[in-house]
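To the wet lab folks,

You asked to see what we're planning to order before we commit. Fair enough. Below is the target structure as tokens, and below that is the sequence we designed to fit it. If anything looks off to you, flag it before the synthesis order goes out.
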């Protein structure tokens, strides 16, 4: 069942102690259009009542800003999810990388102050993955509790963990407010991308299974969703930048003899290696 003492119970326990919902309204920063006083009437609400995917042990969260005034307003900040914890005895893991070193794990112990994982390049990908997780200090692959947070968004993203002077932890995720500004006309609305949350009670492996189940059943689509994919041979690992027709035909023929069903020719672009991009 969902939630139980072995899945999202810690989140619910925090809220029960405070007598409130564990899922807070997303942080909002709005300014009126030039020439107007700040008298706009707006409503921020969680759409779809925070869907719960019980079989995957996942909850998703997003926010919808509705401009109910007669004036245009400009939205500068709207987070998808905010979650408070009663203590901060956790380690936070984020993941970043670059070409041929795509998934490097960074671990910090959460103490007083704020840690931000973000991208301002217009993309997420391997440079600054929009997934972060927190775990107790003794958590391993098969032991200990952990929480995973993933933003379903491939643009500029922002994940922040902050510990206040009382040792409480707050985590927010959403569109990066840096460089973000969206005009909302009277009567229109803006909805943030979904933030995915899950809890693992038996180490990182249990949390990974939750995320895998959610993606496979609720994100993946098309005719290959529940089918075995074709066996694929990619020319990159075999040829790298040294590509010619004779070599590719030889690879394709050898692959067919070995039972390969799909051959992919990857055209390298050497210039990409010479154009570093900064976050």
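Sequence we intend to order:
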């Amino acid at each position: 069942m969902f939630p139980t003492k072995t899945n999202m119970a810690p989140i619910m326990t925090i809220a029960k102690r405070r007598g409130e919902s564990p899922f807070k309204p997303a942080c909002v920063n709005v300014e009126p259009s030039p020439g107007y006083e700040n008298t706009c009437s707006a409503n921020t609400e969680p759409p779809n009542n925070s869907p719960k995917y019980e079989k995957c042990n996942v909850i998703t969260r997003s926010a919808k800003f509705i401009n109910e005034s007669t004036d245009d307003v400009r939205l500068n900040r709207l987070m998808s999810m905010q979650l408070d914890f009663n203590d901060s005895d956790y380690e936070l893991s984020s993941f970043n990388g670059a070409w041929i070193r795509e998934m490097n794990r960074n671990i910090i112990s959460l103490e007083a102050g704020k840690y931000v994982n973000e991208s301002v390049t217009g993309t997420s990908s391997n440079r600054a993955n929009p997934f972060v997780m927190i775990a107790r200090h003794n958590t391993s692959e098969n032991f200990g509790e952990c929480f995973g947070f993933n933003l379903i968004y491939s643009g500029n993203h922002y994940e922040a963990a902050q510990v206040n002077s009382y040792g409480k932890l707050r985590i927010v995720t959403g569109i990066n407010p840096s460089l973000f500004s969206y005009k909302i006309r009277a009567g229109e609305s803006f909805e943030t991308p979904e933030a995915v949350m899950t809890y693992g009670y038996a180490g990182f492996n249990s949390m990974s299974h939750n995320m895998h189940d959610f993606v496979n059943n609720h994100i993946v689509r098309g005719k290959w969703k529940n089918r075995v994919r074709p066996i694929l041979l990619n020319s990159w690992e075999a040829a790298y930048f040294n590509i010619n027709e004779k070599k590719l035909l030889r690879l394709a023929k050898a692959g067919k003899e070995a039972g390969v069903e799909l051959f992919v020719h990857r055209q390298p672009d050497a210039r990409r290696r010479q154009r570093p991009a900064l976050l």
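Structural context that might help your review: DSSP finds four helices and 18 strands in the chain. The first strand starts at residue 28 and ends at 32.

Thanks,
Computational group
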